[in-house]
């Protein structure tokens, strides 16, 4: 958004007013993060300002404590496995929805993205009772399947959006040259839709890595994830170690956003006319 040199006085007033409102809204959203991050470097055991010196002791506790290390490992294992499954299933679903026309297609699409719409507490409660019947509560398999269901809609949406601009004649050309459907997908389709697939996978991983409600319902002591450990720490013993873990999550989220922005720009270059 740029102010034009020929703008009138009223347009200039509205332009700067809009910038002020947008800046205030952004500051309101970012301020809690800016407050949390310095507390993670506090030398004291209390969450208070002014800071009692600068220290990395709480980051050392996060990476040296057996409880925190196990929680980080669980989050990485569950997040990676669920993101992989969500990416495979979501990409297949997106391909089917975009390439086929059938009655009830809209209903199927709505069903696939429903985990994004249904309140997470309802999903967690339903998964808890369902997993209780088949013995998947308090297991890694149960959590991975639950997080797969939560992350798959993101893959479906991103891959479907990428496929909207895909030239289907490329698939027909590859088939006419003798390539089977599997060869066509991996040699022709996947390289062109890869930014959307990777973006969906990152969203699915971030969803799993940040999820806590389903974990509270379905996880056992051995499946304690990083958000669950932070949640329990807030209830039992609040220390700056929780702020250190939160700061690490913020840095992780910023890294994911950077990757997504790179993929967005790469996708624009691929789709722009040469």
Sketch the major β-sheet. Answer: none
Mean pLDDT: 85
Number of strands: 0
Percent of residues in helices: over 70%
Which term fits the overall shape?
globular
* CA-atom Rg in angstroms: 23 Å
- Assembly state (oligomeric): single chain
Give the SSE string: HHHHHHHHHHH
Q: In whole angstroms, how far apart are the ends?
A: 26 Å
Class per helix and strand makeup: mainly alpha
Q: β content, as a range?
A: under 5%
So how many helices? 11
Stretches where pLDDT falls below 50 for ≥5 residues? none
Q: Could you describe the 3D structure shown?
A:
With 274 residues, the chain is mainly alpha-helical. 77% of the residues lie in helices and 0% in strands. It has 11 helices and no strands. α6 (140-163) crosses α8.
Supply database-style keywords.
11 helices; single chain; 274 residues; mainly alpha
Secondary structure elements and their pairing?
Elements: H1 9-39, H2 57-64, H3 66-99, H4 105-117, H5 120-134, H6 140-163, H7 169-176, H8 181-210, H9 213-218, H10 226-236, H11 240-271
Short description:
This protein has helices at residues 9-39, 57-64, 66-99, 105-117, 120-134, 140-163, 169-176, 181-210, 213-218, 226-236, 240-271.
């Amino acid at each position: 958004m740029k102010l034009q040199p020929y703008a009138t006085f009223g347009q200039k007033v509205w332009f700067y007013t809009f910038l002020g409102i947008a800046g205030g809204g952004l500051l309101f959203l970012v301020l809690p993060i800016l407050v949390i991050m310095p507390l993670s470097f506090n030398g004291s055991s209390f969450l208070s300002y002014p800071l009692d010196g600068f220290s990395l002791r709480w980051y050392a506790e996060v990476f040296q404590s057996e409880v925190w290390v196990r929680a980080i490992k669980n989050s990485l294992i569950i997040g990676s496995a669920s993101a992989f499954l969500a990416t495979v299933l979501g990409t297949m679903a997106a391909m089917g929805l975009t390439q086929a026309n059938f009655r009830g297609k809209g209903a199927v699409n709505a069903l696939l993205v429903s985990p994004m719409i249904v309140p997470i507490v309802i999903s967690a409660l339903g998964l808890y009772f369902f997993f209780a019947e088949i013995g998947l509560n308090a297991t890694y398999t149960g959590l991975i399947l639950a997080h797969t269901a939560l992350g798959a809609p993101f893959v479906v949406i991103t891959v479907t959006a990428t496929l909207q601009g895909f030239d289907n004649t490329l698939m027909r050309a590859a088939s006419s040259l003798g390539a089977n459907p599997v060869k066509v997908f991996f040699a022709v389709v996947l390289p062109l839709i890869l930014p959307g697939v990777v973006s969906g996978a990152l969203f699915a991983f971030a969803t799993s890595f940040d999820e806590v409600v389903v974990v509270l319902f379905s996880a056992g002591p051995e499946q304690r994830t990083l958000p669950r450990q932070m949640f329990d720490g807030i209830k039992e013993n609040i220390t700056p170690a929780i702020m250190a873990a939160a700061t690490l999550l913020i840095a992780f989220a910023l890294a994911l956003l950077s990757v997504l922005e790179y993929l967005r720009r790469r996708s624009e270059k691929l789709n722009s006319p040469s």
